[in-house]
Write a structure and sequence with these properties.
This protein is an alpha/beta fold. About 25% of the residues lie in helices and about 20% in strands. The strands form 3 sheets. Strands 1, 12, 13, 14, 15, 16, 17 and 18 form an 8-stranded mixed β-sheet that branches.
């Protein structure tokens, strides 16, 4: 049956030259004709075998989450950014077991909706370990957060600030800046934040409204590869701190640097230690006029905390070509954009995909199972599979612990939401 969405424009002719490969080999390594996958770049063989065995009796597609990895990532951030309070972005992976682990490790939480708030309260998280981190919120939801004890709110507009003043009187507010997100695989520009000129007005308004102007926030963009984006943002933040003190007579106390730290996808990134070293240098430079950093620094990791913890186990549903002269076969999996892989939109996030079969490497196009023609995962970026792979084989999509299950549709084509299991 034809797709229910708009037709996809005809793709340009695909040639071998100009297409890039999933495998990023080390220097001096020549890719031969046999299919090879650098599994050890993403996890140990022992961990993979544990996941494979655990998932063997489970229906695909499913997500397997390794809590040990999340704990390791939390401790890594605490080691390299000991000056920062960690507010986990619940939206990245809201699985109860993930939230409970981070609760016990001492994390605070960036909360986007009243539904996430209810979950956190059910799991025993105190409201003073939460912030309402969504700039788009109903007044009745602000009132609900306030009733439950939350006293820290983000804002980026006069109308939102007015709602906070009525529904959460006397609360602390911080002001999100508009950023471009250049260098990020998943930019968060345009929709969130305000220009510094508007932020100045909001700071003055918050005083008039009886709120506590507490700090400035920004998000450099998700899966941000360019650490220089923190420098650009912190320069603006410092200018606002200085203006607030000298012109508005307001002593701001907090910076919220959002997320942006990377997970381990196909394209490599710098280690967290390098990000930390550079960010501390940017803080020193930007706040030299104060002689110290602001009293409180917050980060809101989601992808970097949960991404590497997950493996989606999928199955090859079909392998087909569109004509007798088609060079690249289409490989249809039982999971696609609507089943949890929406971040393949425009091929933005490039997940490592592991086929266990042997054989020569064959360039492929990867698509999902639904009746929508936009459900194509990778067509431009080259992925390969062994030519001996066949229908019914299992496929392992790595680094899928963040923004997968929480994005999956509830019933498109009758497919249920992606089921998640915690590795035992």
């Amino acid at each position: 049956m034809g797709g229910v969405g708009p037709s996809r424009p005809a793709a340009p002719e695909r040639r071998g030259a100009g297409r890039r490969t999933i495998i990023i080999p080390p220097k001096g390594y020549e890719l031969d004709e046999q299919y090879q996958f650098p599994l050890e770049s993403f996890m140990t063989r022992e961990r993979f075998e544990r996941i494979k065995k655990f998932a063997a009796d489970k229906e695909t597609p499913c997500l397997v989450i390794d809590l040990d990895v999340i704990k390791q990532k939390y401790e890594e951030l605490r080691t390299h950014l000991p000056f920062a309070k960690i507010f986990y972005a619940v939206k990245a992976n809201p699985t109860d077991e993930v939230v409970a682990l981070l609760r016990d490790l001492g994390a605070s939480f960036d909360v986007a909706t009243r539904f996430e708030l209810d979950q956190l309260l059910r799991l025993g998280v105190a409201p003073d370990r939460m912030s309402f981190g969504n700039t788009i919120k109903k007044e009745k939801d602000i009132a609900y957060f306030y009733e439950k004890g939350v006293r820290l709110y983000v804002t980026d507009s006069p109308t939102d600030l007015d709602k906070i003043s009525r529904a959460a009187p006397g609360s602390k507010v911080f002001f999100r800046l508009l950023t471009e997100g250049l260098g990020a695989d998943w930019p968060l520009s345009k929709k969130f934040g305000s220009h510094p000129d508007l932020a100045r007005q909001l700071i003055k308004m918050s005083v008039r409204f009886g709120l506590v102007p507490y700090g400035i926030s920004f998000h450099p963009g998700s899966q941000q590869r360019d650490v220089g984006q923190w420098s650009t943002a912190l320069t603006q933040v410092a200018q606002l701190f200085r203006w607030a003190k000298e012109e508005a007579h307001v002593e701001l106390k907090m910076i919220n640097m959002g997320g942006g730290f990377p997970a381990n996808y196909v394209e490599s990134t710098d280690p967290i230690a390098q990000y930390s070293e550079d960010i501390q240098r940017f803080l020193d430079t930007s706040f030299k006029f104060m002689g110290r950093w602001p009293e409180e620094i917050i980060i809101e990791p989601g992808r970097s905390m949960a991404g590497d913890s997950g493996v989606i186990v999928a199955e090859i549903v079909n392998i087909a070509k569109k004509s007798v002269h088609e060079r690249y076969p289409w490989v249809f999996l039982d999971i696609g954009k609507f089943g949890g892989l929406i971040e393949t939109l425009d091929e933005a996030i490039k997940y490592p995909i592991y086929f266990e079969a042997q054989g020569k490497a064959q360039s492929i196009i990867i698509a999902g199972p639904t009746c929508d023609s936009m459900d194509i995962l990778y067509e431009k970026w080259t992925y390969t599979m062994p030519d001996k792979a066949k229908i019914g084989d299992r496929v392992y999509i790595l680094t899928t612990g963040a923004y997968t299950q929480s994005y999956s549709s509830i019933y498109f084509n009758g497919f249920p939401p992606l089921k998640a299991y915690v590795l035992k």
